[in-house]
Amino acid sequence: MNFVWHGDIVLNVAMSGGGVDWPWVCTLAAIVCIAWVMTSRKR
Known about the structure:
By secondary structure, this protein is mostly helical.
């Protein structure tokens, strides 16, 4: 559910910045994925 929310923020920041900063987007995506895997493993 939070993936759409994070994606909207990334898109808004990228579009307001006038371009997509792919290294930052990839890093943020990796952090979100790792956090999701860790939380899912704890359950």
